[in-house]
Amino acid sequence: MSSHSMANLSYISSPIIPNEMNNIALLKVVLLHGAVAFLLFGSWSVSEHPPAAVKTINIQMYTLPKPVVKPVEMVNEPEPIVSEPIVLKPEIKPPVVKQDLAFERVKKAEPEVKPIPVVKKQVKPNIKPKVKPKPKVQAKPIENQVKSQKTKPTLIDNKKVSKPATSASAPHKVNNNVKAMAAENTGDAQQIEQYLPIDKTAPKYPKGAMRKNLEGDCTVQYDVNEQGRVVSPEIMGECHPLFKRPSLEATKDFRYKPRMIDGKAVVVKRVKNTFEYRLK
């Protein structure tokens, strides 16, 4: 290198050390931050809140006028109408007729008829007596609510037998005829007695008929079997509908003595019973 070039190099600044460069940069940064901070604090202003508005209520007092009281007019009330009291008549119920047993009613209904004994009289010879033939009587017991009629055997009246004439064989013949008739009557009486009622209860009077004051008769026809019980009851003739049911129910409860023929019980057909419904 020449001497001239060396002289020019003496006027050039010395080279910067790296540590010094760092300090200078750091100082610049600090100054920059301080300037920014100063500007921020300089422009910062604390805003004050305005005072809160106070609400006020204005109250005004008024005096109301006194109410005008109108006088109340007195109204005359009409006198109450008093109606005459209604007198209710008590309902008079018909008296209940106490029903007696069948046999007691028979005794009260009919007087006892004592059989007239057959008196054997002496017959004059040569005159044959004229004896009227006796018809057979079929027992048809007819009973009702109040009176139970009881069929009785036919009795022989001595007035119907003419006086016998004088004959030797006539007395014996007349006596035999009288005995035969008496035996026949006795047999009929036994047959009738064999199926007379044992238990017969009268029906109760229907309430509907009592309210309507209805009266009437009702005839029931039925058969009596070998055990003396009623079978196949049915209404015969005219009968009010209110009387049909109690009549049939009462008939079903009847009990009879079985009718005996030649030692055997037989059925009795078409027995009729009439119930009389009467208000007393």
From TrEMBL:
SUPFAM superfamilies: TolA/TonB C-terminal domain. GO terms for biological process: protein transport; siderophore transport; transmembrane transport. It is a single-pass membrane protein. It is found in: Cell inner membrane. Keywords: Cell inner membrane, Cell membrane, Membrane, Protein transport, Transmembrane, Transmembrane helix, Transport. InterPro entries: TonB, TonB-dependent_transducer, TonB/TolA_C, TonB_C. Residues 190-280 form the TonB C-terminal domain. One of its GO terms (molecular function) is energy transducer activity. One of its GO terms (cellular component) is outer membrane-bounded periplasmic space. Belongs to the TonB family. PANTHER family: PROTEIN TONB (PTHR33446:SF2), PROTEIN TONB-RELATED (PTHR33446). This is TonB C-terminal domain-containing protein. It comes from marine sediment metagenome.
